[in-house]
Amino acid sequence: MSAPLLWIFFPLFLSGLLILVKNQKFVVLVACLFTLFLTVAAWLLPIDIAIKIGGWTIKLAPSIEILGRYLTITSADRSFLALVYGSAFFWFIPTFSLQIGQRLISLGLAITSMLVAAIAVEPFLYAALIIEMAVLISIPMLTIPQQKPSKGVIRYLIFQTLAVPFILFSGWLLAGIEANPGDLALVRQAATLLGLGFAFLLAVFPFYSWIPMLAEKGHPYIVGFLLWMLPTATLFFGLGFLDRYAWMRDTPSLTVILTTVGALMVVTGGLLSAFQQHLGRIMGYAIIMETGFSFLALSLGSQTGLETFLLLLVPRTLSLGLWALSLSILMKQAPDLSFKAVQGMGRSWPFSAGGLILANLSLAGMPLLAGFPAHQAVWEILARSSLPLAFCALIGSLGLFFSAVRVLAALANAPEGTPWNSRETPVQKILVMIGLIGLILLGLFPQWAFSLWTKLPPIFEHLP
Amino acid sequence: MLAIQFFGVFWMVQAHWSISMASVKLITGWMACAVLGIARLNTGTVGDLDTIWPQGRLFHIFTSAMVFSVTFALSLHVVGWLGLSLPVAWGSLLLIGLGLLHLGITSDSFQVVIGLLTVFAGFEVVYASVETSALVTALLAVVNLGLALAGAYILLGAQEKI
Predict the structure, then answer these.
(1) Which of A42, A157, A345, A411 is most open to solvent, judged by the fewest CB atoms within 10 Å of its CB?
(2) Residues of B in contact with A69 (CB under 8 A)
(3) Residue in chain B lying closest to A158 (CA)
(4) Do residues A315 and A378 touch, judged by C-beta distance below 8 A?
(5) Mean pLDDT rounded to a whole number for chain A
(6) What is the ipTM of this complex?
(7) Cis peptide leading into residue A123 (ω within 30°)
(8) DSSP A58
(9) pTM for this model (two decimals)
(10) Which residue of B has its CA nearest to A160?
């Protein structure tokens, strides 16, 4: 058996089967068990090393050949696999209580396996095409049958598709640079095309207008899943470039670009979130901010930068998952997620309201919550090198904090005499409580989230 | 028109690839046309006229003329850079330019998919001159078909409401 078969083709095949199954309970159960198995397998099973289990000897081959090219998963990819499938497991569990298992799981599993394929494909530039395929698969998830697609969906499709030509063509130029490293004009052209490609893929400022639009009209849980999964895989794809090309990671302008773009995304995302009147749009801007924080973390360079980037990932998953879950529960009762529509709902839906506020505060970097340690690390290291930059990052976080206060005010603003009661189902209450406890525990013990990256082989060979 | 466009793409790609490989572009393109055509026939509408920019004929002629001239100027550089013949270079850049123009002046989902397919078609012609991998050809074919299917899905979904 080969590793790509286990982590790419089996999930893809299962997602195809699950589309045909109508029983939602069964779909959720099978998908959760399978993703949990893949996570544990990524954690425990070494690749390309024979291991004995009872009387059986198992060896996972790292590669599989397709049309003359290879899909390769090595031991270095195990932490990425554990992150992706572990997150998919956590994202899939609440789908049953939200009645979206059928819609999210089958296609979500396919998207997850495609993103793993994107990281595994050799030459790795072809990943852009595989990411585009994942984007195309996500279109049915984002459009509600018998409804006109929102403008956000159309823009999402356009921007993600336009990224492909840029990245593929830059790949051809990069091959030229390998042969002729002194050609500065070629380096400039490749860097420009690559930068544009990633700007479209990662919805970098100013190409992020579709994110709030998508978050406003789409189902919050599905949008949350996609906007966690796609940028994370794309960021790892981008880091793959830095890992492979020494000239790219050594160029001084890389730090300037990452810093500028990151600061712009954090400031604009945070400030714009503070003025929104829609809960979904606030989540969208928080996601933009988080991408900005990833850039800022990477701009720090050295081992600290990469560690901070990795430290941001697990708390982000938990915060975003809880945020999307809480919004989805509220959405079932409110006509939409505008402040006007959800006004005073905190009294009838206290668990969801609490989950929403704390998830928002966690991504704003509130102390004692999961997002704080990583955000604090970014602020601190930025402040050592540039106070204005640290100030920018803080302004963005303050904007998101202010939006949490406004959301709290809207949810608590019920007519006088409205009694407190909880209308969430027991399952929803348990799920939200698990999320809340997780946020607090990860805030107190951030090293737990980091063990994913320390206990498994390092994912990047040349990055510090 | 889209079917003719894909025949043109096939014609330009076969300058660099074998006929059998280039025909993948033709077949995929025509399949995409069939998918979109069937979806359009089932909806029986001309799409919503939700547009961003002015839609007068004069505006279209003016902007298209600009794209023609700009792409011609660019193609003179591309000829030397990629070793393409001028008609192929200009043809591909023209497709990219007109596709982008189309994307810029419409927000109708059907037109957007046609715009994306056009941009992609132009890119595939240029890329064919530098990359001959069978896997890339297959992946690009899947992306083209995926775009058409996504377009058809969106079109049919939007129509159900009406």
Answers:
(1) A345
(2) 133, 135
(3) B116
(4) no
(5) 90
(6) 0.89
(7) yes
(8) E
(9) 0.91
(10) B116
